[in-house]
Amino acid sequence: MHYNNLFSFNKLEYVTGRKKPDVGCILCAINEKDPRVERLEVYRNAFFLISVNLYPFNVGHLLIFPLRHIETIVELSDDEALQLHHLTNLSIEVLSEVYSPGGFNVGYNIGACSGASIEHLHLHIVPRYSRELGFIDILGGAKLVVEHPEVTTKKLKEAFQKRNLT
Ligand SMILES: [Zn+2]
User: How far is the CA of 7 from the centre of ligand 1 (A)?
Assistant: First the structure.
């Protein structure tokens, strides 16, 4: 397990989104490299981008989303749907290599009643671990983040790049 890089963190500020960027659509902002959003991109091609979730459920929690702003999977073309499937597989391979999780949850939240907080279509890839600490745990009274999303981004970006070259 990769539980290094432990450090204290202001949980409330980060998780409740007090610093939430004031942008129209956060995924479009990431796509456009808006300086107001955190740079958590790990991979992109002409149609899709893969980003570490700014508010991860678990270490390695990724979002795959189309560059164009669409809101449901119905709007994906057949080519895009196929490509999304390949990127899902690629993400699972990379996450398996870097974090060796015991499983994955893969899925969409679509529409107002689904719990989706972002309208722009995105696929969640959540690695699951047999001994989960959770993203934020209280250990010995201190709030600790298992791994900062920026650290996750760096590791995964390298792993995606490596696979792209081979
Ligand atoms: Zn958008």
Answer: 32
Given the residues 61, 86, 120, 122, the one annotated as active site? 122
Top CATH class of 23-131+148-165 equals: alpha beta
Q: Please give the pLDDT value at position 16.
A: 42
Q: Which amino acid, residue 86?
A: H
Sheet holding 48-52, edge to edge: 41-44, 48-52, 62-66, 123-128, 103-107
30 C-alpha vs ligand 1 centroid, how far in Å?
Answer: 9
Q: Which single residue is written with the structure tokens 């398996």?
A: 96
- Tell me if residue 61 is catalytic: no
Q: Which is higher by pLDDT, 28 or 16?
A: 28
- Give the Å distance between the CA of 100 and the centre of ligand 1: 31
User: Would you give the end-to-end CA distance of the chain in angstroms?
Assistant: 26
The per-residue pLDDT for range 22-75, each reduced to its tens digit, is 778 989 999 999 887 777 899 999 999 999 987 777 889 999 999 999 999 999
- 54 within 8 A of 109, measured Cβ to Cβ: no
Cα of 53 from ligand 1 centre, angstroms: 15
Alpha-carbon 145 to chain mean position: 16
